[in-house]
Amino acid sequence: MRSSLLAVVWLVAGCDLELTFDPPTYDQLGDAERSAVDRIFARLQAYDARLRAYGAGTYSLGPIAQEKDRIDVSVVDFWMMVNLGDDRIHLTVWENLTDDQRAHYASWFGESPEAAAQRFGYHFYEFMALHLAGVQTVYAVQGVSWVYENRHMFNIDRDAERLVDTYLAETDPALYNFMWSTCGSIIGVYDARYGPWFEMRAYGDHVRELTDPHDPAGQIYMICRHLDAADVRRRAWASSFAAEIDVLERQRSGDY
Q1: Contact in structure between 103 and 27 (CB atoms under 8 Å)
Q2: Distance (Å, whole) CA 179 – CA 145
Q3: What stretches of the chain adopt beta strand conformation (E)?
Q4: Torsion from C-alpha of 193, 195, 200, 203, nearest 10 degrees
Q5: Where are the domains of the chain?
Q6: SS3 category, 71
Q7: Which distant-in-sequence residues (6+ apart) come within 8 Å of 25 by Cβ?
Q8: Beta bridge partners of residue 72, listed in sequence order
Q9: How far apart are CA 35 and CA 33, in angstroms?
Q10: Cβ atoms of residues 137 and 248 within 8 Å
Q11: Which of 16, 40, 56, 124 is geometrically suited to a Cys-Cys bond with 129, CB 3.0 to 4.6 A?
Q12: Residue ranges of the chain with pLDDT lower than 70?
């Protein structure tokens, strides 16, 4: 449903946060921001190489894996994990969060802010970068306009995590195991609160809370639940990265 996907745009417009279509270039960023972009970009390029290998280059991530300027990490004091299909992604950088926001993240794991900063780097600059690459893959395979008109945010995140799960299982078990542990903690903290909303209709009913740039807990919880479900699916059906792309193609053609 188009309205469901665009809810995140409406949410951003309805709070104190504004996303610009002309964010700072890579060269205009601070040292910490450039370091984060370097790490994100490396993940996107590695994923893109895998995606291009499927179907002899039929699909790619496009500009987000080709130009560092397409990675926006400039937002301050808000949590951002956004890919709107405009060949740009938006991700939060640790140094741009407030002390309270960093302490909130650390509390999920019972860690000091210093230890949480290390975890955050793997979580956001690597795993969340891959999640947004998975979303970009949905756009690449099915077309941005078709996705906006026919797909629900809940199912886009689901399909993105199916891609990420199979990709990591095939290429980087260490990061996968790290995220399994990280998500286990997050699910443990928030399952009672957000668990009943882990289905499409309930997600739509609570989309504002689940995509709140003031508090990332709901959005991150949902992504972790999708990763968990994707792992069950992969093991049960012996799924693969290529097979999940095939599913996206069949969804688009109406054969799935």
Answers
A1: no
A2: 32
A3: 71-72, 81-83, 89-91
A4: 10
A5: 2-253
A6: strand
A7: 69
A8: 90
A9: 5
A10: yes
A11: 40
A12: 1-21, 256
The pLDDT assigned to 256 comes to: 64
Tokens 């601070």: give the residue. Answer: 30
**What is the rounded CA–CA span in Å between residue 84 and residue 148?**
10
Over pLDDT 70: what percentage of the chain?
91
What pLDDT is recorded for position 195? 98
Angle of CA points 13, 23, 123, to nearest 5°: 80
Residue with token string 């964010």: 23
* pLDDT for residue 126: 98
Please give the DSSP secondary-structure letter assigned to residue 57: T
Q: What is the pLDDT of residue 254?
A: 82
**Rounded Cα–Cα distance for residues 220 and 227 (Å):** 11
Kindly state the tokens that stand for 167: 């990709």
pLDDT of residue 51: 97
Rounded to 5°, the CA angle 92-93-99 comes to: 100
Q: What is the pLDDT of residue 181?
A: 96
What pLDDT score was predicted for residue 15? 47
- Nearest CA to 61 out of 159, 148, 137, 162 is that of 137
Residue-level pLDDT at 19: 55
pLDDT value at position 164? Answer: 98
Q: In this structure, are residues 127 and 220 in contact, taking their beta carbons and an 8 Å threshold?
A: no
212 vs 222: CA distance, rounded Å: 13
pLDDT at 12: 45
